[in-house]
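Task: fold both queries, return C-alpha cells.
Query 1:
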Amino acid sequence: MIDAHCHLADETFSDDLEGVVARATSAGVEAALVILEAGNGQEAKQATRLESLWPAVRFTVGVHPHAAHEYGTNAQRAVDAVRDQIRRTPLARAVGEIGLDYHYDYSPRDVQLVVFRAQVRLARELGLPVVIHTREADQDTLDVLRDEGKGDLRGVFHCFSGTTDLARAGVDLGFYISFAGIVTFNGAENLRDTARLVPMERLLAETDSPFLAPVPHRGKRNEPAFVSHVVAALAQLHDVEGEEMDQYTTANFHRLFRP
C-alpha cells in the first residue's frame, strides 16, 4: 500500500514521528507522498528527519491556495520559492498541493488564480505532475488546468470530495482521483457513488493525515497506517478483493510519481 498524500512534516507529528513511521510500515504501507509548504523551514527540517526514518517517502512542494495571499499578485516570487525548494529536495516528485479554495477564501480569489496558474506553468516546465486541491471552485480549476496544462499535464485531484462531473472531467484530462477517509464516512454515499465510477486504473488512496481519519478511527489523529481502510473501502465499492485494489492503487502511484 501507498499513502498518496499526507502531511508528516507537520508539527503535529514531531513528537512521535518514529512511531508513526513504524506503525505505517508494520501495516504494510511501503511508501508515502509527503506534502511540503514552500518556504516553511520547520517542515523542511522535519522532512530531512523523515527521509532518514523512511527512505521510501517522496515529497511535493507547493504554495497552497490558503497561503497564496502571502505572495499577493507577485506570482513569480511564489514560483521562485517552489522551484528553489524542489531543487534542494532530491526526493521531490511533484508540485503541490496547489489549486483553489473558494470555501474558506483565506486568500483573495484573484490572487489564488494568479498563483495557481503560475505553479501549473512551473510544473510543465519541470516536467512534474501536480497535486490539486480544489473546493467549491470546479470550473475555475478545470479552466486553469486546461489553459495552462496544454494537454500534457499530469496530476491528481487529492482528497476528492467533489461531484461526479468533476471526477469525470478530471479523468478526461488524464488525471488520477485520490480518495481519503471521507469515503468511509456514514454520510458520504454520494461520494461513494462517484468512487464507483472512477476506473480502477485512475484511483489513488490517501490519508491526508493528520486530517480526516477513516472509520473506525474517525475523531482521532489520522496517520499513514490508516490508509488500509481507504483501500478496503475502494475495493468494496469496485467489488474486488482488497489485494487487487492495493495492486491497482500502488501501480497507479508509481506510474504518476516516478520512484
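Query 1 returned. Query 2:
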Amino acid sequence: MLLGALAAMLDMEPDFEIIDTASDGKEALTLIKKHTVDIVLTDIEMPKLTGIELAQELKKLQHPAKVMILTTFARSGYLRRAMDSGVKGYLLKDAPSNSLANAIRKIHEGKTIVATGLVTNAWTEADPLSDNERKILRLSFEGLSTKEIAAQTSLSAGTVRNYLSEVISKLDANNRIDAARIAKQKGWL
C-alpha cells in the first residue's frame, strides 16, 4: 500500500515518470536491468536483497542508475554503508513529500543528498564487520542453522562457525543473537 501511494505521489510530478515498482530487492534488480532507469528509490530493509545490497549490485554492474534510499532508519552505520556502496541520496521517511521530489531532482543533477544530522554521526564509529560476516550474521538472524547457512553460502559449516565466532568477538556479544541485535542497532546488519 505504501509503495503504491509513494509511486502515485511521485508520478504526479510533471517531470517524473515511474517506470515500475518492486516488492523486493531481487525483483527490483531484475526490473532495473530491463528498463532505462535514471533514479532507483529504495528502502534499506527489503526481502531478498537489501537496499544497500541492491546499490552494491548496481555498482558492480556499473549501471548508470543513481540510487536513493528512503527509510525510517536514521542509523549512522546504514548511512555509511550506503554511501560506500555508491548511494547518492539518503532521506528519512518523515521528510516532507516536496523535499523528496526536490532531492530526487538534485540527485538527477549529480548532487548527493543526505538527511540533515546523519552525516556527522556516520563517521564516528566504524563498521567492524566484513561483507561475509554481515551476510552470515544476517542469515543466522533470519533463523537459519549453521548447516543451512553453509549450504546457502557454499562454505563449510566450520567456516560459518568461525565467521560467527569472529563476529561475536568483534561485537563483544554473548552469542550470535546478541551479535545480531548489536549489529542491527548500529545499522551494520
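Both queries returned. Flag for query 2: The chain has ten helices and four strands.
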